[in-house]
């Protein structure tokens, strides 16, 4: 089932069923989306406290200073202002306020004379009331919000230690090719070192990558034991004697979602669903083709598994190199006068894409190109 480039991208996205929610420690949820609203577990602030270093005062001034409270002291301190007494308690910012506090007089505005203090206060000034920002059971953020460091801070402040999030999809990467190495006649592995960055950029977590010797039995064993939502196989996607991906998936009865894409490079990209629900992406061994295939089938799959919207790509009208029948993916630099092709864009090349701002997705028929962002 060879699809057009946009069709393949959409089919990959549609094939992914969003992962169910997981409860993660707040710090591990960074970058993920809340699967359930953030509900406050406590009051914020937890008790009435001072917003300034100064004096908690009760009754009309001047006030008699009756003690001092620092932040972090457990338990209530003695009330002030009982029966209309003009009393003050020295307080640090964040310290629990004594019952009866009218307002807090900051040190800078206070005149101290022995055990008396005086100054002008405004009713309720510099007082932070228990629960004024959040109360237990209050919904603070809706499901769908991305967990930023600020969300982590809010969750921590209201006593939430675990968040229900849509987890990052697990990716396993099987890198094939007995020719890979840096000895004589060998080819240096360019894809394995790039995969952790590609996967992280696309929102997955990668275990590995794992090198797999050429041979159907080894690939089969590695595929069967890969614990992942998406298994990415690099190389072995073509029709040579050591190209086992497609025959193996056929033998396993995997359901094809994308089996080849009418684009250059990346024509051998594919995506299949195994009977156990795992998805398998084929990335051709040529490194630029592998990146194109990753962007065409693997990244949309990861977006779908994360329950994200499929990214909408901008269109751009420009004279860019075209292929006679297939969509062409061209590394471009974005300039004020439009995208400029950088060359070095054959299937096994990397210099173009290494200096590109984006890939222009150029249809064969001369209609406007799309701009595919690149992993950063
Ligand atoms: N008879 C045909 N031959 C080829 C076809 C075809 O349709 N018919 N398609 C060509 C296209 S297009 C591509 S792309 C490649 C895909 O090949 P495979 O996915 O089977 O990968 P290999 O044969 O293992 O390697 C191809 C090429 O890439 C180099 N390679 C492999 N892995 C890596 C890596 N991790 N890092 C760097 N380079 C890698 C490998 O040495 C080969 O040069 O097939 C064409 N042939
Ligand atoms: O799969 Mo190949 O990428 O068309 O160069």
Automatic annotation (TrEMBL):
Enzyme class: transferase
Catalytic activities: adenylyl-molybdopterin + molybdate = Mo-molybdopterin + AMP + H(+)
Protein name: Molybdopterin molybdenumtransferase
Organism: Nocardioides panacihumi
Keyword field contains Transcription: no
Annotated SUPFAM superfamilies: MoeA C-terminal domain-like, MoeA N-terminal region -like, Molybdenum cofactor biosynthesis proteins
PANTHER family: GEPHYRIN, MOLYBDOPTERIN BIOSYNTHESIS PROTEIN
Needed co-factor(s): Mg(2+)
EC number: 2.10.1.1
Job of this protein: Catalyzes the insertion of molybdate into adenylated molybdopterin with the concomitant release of AMP.
Membership in a protein family: Belongs to the MoeA family.
Keywords: Magnesium, Metal-binding, Molybdenum, Molybdenum cofactor biosynthesis, Transferase
Pathway listed: Cofactor biosynthesis; molybdopterin biosynthesis
Annotated ranges, domain MoaB/Mog: 172-304
Coiled-coil spans in chain: none
């Amino acid at each position: 089932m060879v699809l057009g480039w946009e069709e393949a991208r959409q089919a990959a996205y549609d094939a992914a069923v969003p992962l169910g929610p997981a409860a993660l420690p707040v710090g591990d949820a960074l970058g993920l989306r809340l699967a359930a609203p953030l509900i406050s577990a406590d009051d914020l602030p937890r008790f009435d406290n001072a917003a300034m270093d100064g004096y908690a005062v009760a009754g009309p001034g001047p006030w008699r200073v009756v003690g001092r409270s620092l932040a972090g002291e457990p338990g209530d301190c003695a009330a002030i202002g009982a029966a209309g007494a003009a009393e003050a308690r020295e307080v640090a910012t964040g310290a629990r306020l004594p019952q009866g506090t009218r307002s807090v007089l900051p040190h800078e505005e206070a005149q101290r004379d022995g055990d008396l203090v005086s100054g002008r206060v405004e009713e309720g000034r510099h007082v932070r009331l228990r629960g004024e920002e959040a109360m237990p059971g209050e919904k603070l953020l809706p499901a769908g919000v991305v967990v930023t460091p600020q969300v982590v801070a809010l969750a921590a402040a209201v006593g939430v230690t675990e968040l229900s999030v849509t987890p990052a999809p697990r990716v396993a990467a099987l890198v094939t090719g007995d020719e890979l190495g840096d000895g004589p006649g060998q080819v240096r592995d360019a894809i394995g070192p790039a995969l952790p960055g590609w996967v992280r950029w696309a929102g997955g977590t990668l275990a590995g990558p794992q090198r797999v010797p050429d041979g159907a039995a080894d690939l089969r064993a590695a595929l069967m034991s890969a614990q992942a939502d998406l298994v990415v196989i690099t190389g072995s996607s073509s029709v040579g004697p050591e190209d086992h991906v497609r025959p193996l998936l056929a033998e396993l009865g995997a359901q094809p979602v994308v089996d080849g894409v009418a684009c250059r490079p990346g024509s051998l990209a594919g995506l299949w669903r195994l009977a156990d629900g795992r998805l398998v992406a084929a990335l051709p061994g040529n490194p630029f083709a592998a990146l194109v295939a990753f962007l065409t089938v693997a990244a949309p799959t990861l977006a779908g598994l994360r329950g994200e919207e499929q990214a909408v790509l901008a269109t751009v009208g420009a004279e860019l190199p075209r292929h006679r029948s297939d969509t062409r993916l061209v590394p471009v630099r974005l300039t004020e006068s439009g995208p400029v092709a950088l060359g070095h864009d054959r299937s096994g090349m990397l210099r173009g894409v290494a200096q590109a701002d984006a890939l222009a997705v150029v249809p064969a028929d001369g209609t406007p190109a799309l701009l595919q962002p690149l992993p950063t």
